[in-house]
Queue: 2 jobs
Job 1
Amino acid sequence: MRRALLLLAVLGLAGIGGGLALTAPDRVDPARLAGLTGDAARGEAVFRIAGCASCHAAPGADGEARLVLAGGLAFETDFGTFRAPNVSPSPKGIGGWSVEDLANAMLAGVSPDGAHYYPAFPYGSYAKMEPQEIADLHAYMMTLPPSDAESPPHELGFPFSIRRGIGLWKLLYLSPEPVIAVEGETLLRGRYLVEGPAHCGECHTARNALGGPDLSRWLAGGPNPDGKGRIPNLTPHETGLTWSAADIAEYLRSGFTPEYDVAGGSMADVVKNTATLSDADRAAIAAYLKALPPHPTER
Amino acid sequence: MTGKTTGKIVKLGLAALVAFSAGAAAAQDMDRAVKARKSLMTLYAHYLGTLGGMAKGEIAYDSAKAASAAASLAALSTADQSAMWPQGSDNASLGMDKTEALPVIWTTYPAIAEKGKAMAEAAANLSAVAGNDLAALQGAMGPVGASCGGCHKEFRQPKG
């Protein structure tokens, strides 16, 4: 009996130890980041397609003010309220961050002091980005105006308030590997943009109870995680996105739908970003969406 | 029933009838205003269809047709809309099946008028260059779309 208890205790300790080891924040392998030099001009393009300002600009900011990444925008979700932090180059933001710090944040969801970020910050998508683009983005972000706004805290219920639990989420959902297998230069470029920096899947793929993307219905839409209504299905099913590739590219350039209605809601902000892409990149995104495995729209 | 009481009832009835027809007239005006602004959007879409078809490469670019469609769009964008947006013609008062216009249009006025002006400017710019060549047309379509989005993002009920 005593031996059985002892065994149980050992197993329990091993379980806790294993759990701690498994959920510990892992940084990016430094070898992936060695010798990178950022280019601010390229970084501006990355900044736009990654949509940084859409979340990190102060709520209601317009025009040039969208480059002051003071944070403060609130996201109401099933897990609680997340608030976008200050990521301007000031002591209250990311002032003093190295390329490695930004890469650890965006590719691994780990802060400079080694804590997990919540995946409301879409590093599940950014993890699929090239480290060079992170270095370029870093160079650009350091040229932006600083803000000394205090980052507001998240308001989350138990157990989501325990950051360590995010380690488990990462084990299940964080991967630099692409979601959909495609071939050819255009489709590979489209996949990179959609699955990586443009982080389309963060809204257009439904989430499960743990807040992970349902990869079996990749980009097939679902309930709006941050408000009313539903997020459209982007897959080329007859109940999904039936637009031509030219229609999709035009929508991403001007915001016009095939009926000459325009993007509304948060997609209007996204189109501001996709409007800055090259025609070739918009065509690549359209080609990738047309090549997706089709899924029916769930009602 | 005395004559006096009958007279009172008739008077009350008349008053109610007047009040009711005033309400009916207002509702009819409201419907007319909503119909007018929706028609204007349909007309925008008509000319944008020609311009967008060329921008997408679905219709061959034709300088004269492009210039004409863009000039028509620019003219429509300066139409007097003041009577198309009466107070209370929002989706909370009239219902979602009648209109998608949000009440915030009237509480933040003249914000929407500023956005309308931005659309007229973008359309005027498109009209100035649409006949030049396809690249000029494509380049000027984006700001028009963005200006449409300027109102639809803030002032229209999101779809879904």
Job 2
Amino acid sequence: MWSFFIRRLLQMIPTLLGVILLVFFLFNWVGGDPAYILAGKLASAEDIANIRHQLGIDQPWYWQLWIFIQQIATGNFGDSWATHESVAHIFKTRLTPSLVLLIPMMIIETVTAVCLALLVAVFRRSMIDQSLMVVSTIMMSISLLVYIIVGQYLFASLLGWFPVKGWSDSLWRDLTYYAPLPIFLGLLVSIAPSLRLYRTFILDEINQDYVRTARAKGLSESRVLFKHVLKNAAIPILTNLLMGLPGLLTGAFLLERFFAIPGIGREIILAVERSDFPIIKAATVYVAIATMLANLLADLLYRYLDPRVNLK
Amino acid sequence: MTSQEESMISSFSPSLWALARKRLARDAIGLLSLLVVVFFILMSLGSYFGFLAKNWDQEVAINYAPPTWLATNQESVSALQAPIPPRSQIDLYGQTDPLAPLLDELEAHNPQDINSPPDQQKVNHLVFGADKWGRSVILKTIKGSETSILVGLVAALVATAIGTVLGALSGYFGGWVDDFLNWFYNVFTAIPYLLLIFAIAAVLNQKGVSTIILILGLTGWTGVYRLIRAEYLKHRHREYVLAAKAMGASHYRRMFIHILPNTLHVILVQLSINVVGFIKSEVILSFLGFGVPVEVVSWGSMLNEAQNELVLGIWWQLVAAGVAMALLVTAFSVLTDALRDALDPKVVA
């Protein structure tokens, strides 16, 4: 187990290096000279030379790469180009609103999707199964944008059940007052794909021999489902959940933007609009690291839950 | 192999494609979705070549003209209620216009500019309403479908081509080629898809249909790569490939003439999955303003306008773009499922 863990950690190094190189290449070659973005429209040659010196762009590329690696290792990406707030501070303060929005969403989504998936798996090929699948296909086809625009107008502007947008400093008020509508709208889009995925996981298990044996022993259907099937189907479901965890870091871009939630997703969109490279660079690299760690965790969990899995 | 021999063989052992066609023909819902998809593609092609929605940008109605069945007043109205007063009659409150001599000169050269434009009759209702500038929402949706569908299709072709070639190289050659491309794949999948798109959009920093195709095409190849690589790993030691090698077929020939046709079913399904995903991504990118430029209309930019109109009670643009997109995406997803079922030999027909 330990040797596997260490080997996987070592295997992450080339990938991480690749991510760093990719981001470095994108922002230093493709992105053009940031001095022109920073200096504004009426910049003198001196201003530009000055900024280039401050950013280290006048150094050779390997030196710039070294600066970038140092930034990643120390977590110090300097200041935002647009607001001059430190990047580390931006991420620290924007993380909580994103989590307040996304953790409840993830929990509700998983519970609902698993329950519905069990339901449709039990009644597979019946009317309930077919109609639920049709509904979820249609739900998946409507753009999240449409859900948000209509939902915000209908439930907030027209009916006044929820605030149109906003956020507060109190966790309780955020959770009970500001977050419910965005969470609900996010669920409308995210439940359907999970349901379809989990349905296939459960159907894979339900046709196995051990289920037939359990039924032959005379176990009740609910016992077969919850004790036998769900336990085995839980392995891919949990893996899928863990792989989704890094998504919490980037947040729900559109939800945060529409409902003016000061989370990471909204910050990234703002950064793209303002060509605020330090924020995008930091977000890309750290989310990539988080994704790799989450994949590793998923593998370890897989191994722990299913001893038959042989990790090499 | 001559066509005669081919037909002889297929007469007692139908090919995968013949079987797939048969299975698809029996699938009524699959056929229906195929029809819808073909309809949308023809519509966007028609618009691209100028057969359809050519005059979409003409301001034929008053702004926010409601759909016909909601209109209370059926009379056309004149666009200009009052004639434009001549410049000399405008009260400047004692100030002198510094540009007056210049304007006099201009007016002397272009006397037609002084007169008010020809009085256009603008209708105050349209079949499915009008947008802010009085353009028909139906024509705008057709024009928008052109952008959204062409971007989706072309970007999916680019992404699938990249994924197929890289996957084929990786699976066929193995060894260090495979290691290197796998590393490349790992790097691209380590960064969440939308974040990568945003990062590339930020550095390119120029809007345009070709930019967005480039972004989506360069980021979307990973799924295809993984599946095609697995297919090639499976096929490269099969007997028919060894036979081709014994006959002296080159690597290129074995990879793309012998193995590729046997993976086409995977490619086709991936292509259609990509089209759906890219149409959705294009809409989101254009909505956020990172996608198509302002003068190009797409479903995303229509939704962007619709967002502010809804508060005014103007719902027709939202419904038009939303329904068109939902219809196409549903049909495409159902078609993908039908294709997968039809092409999967393991499915009991």
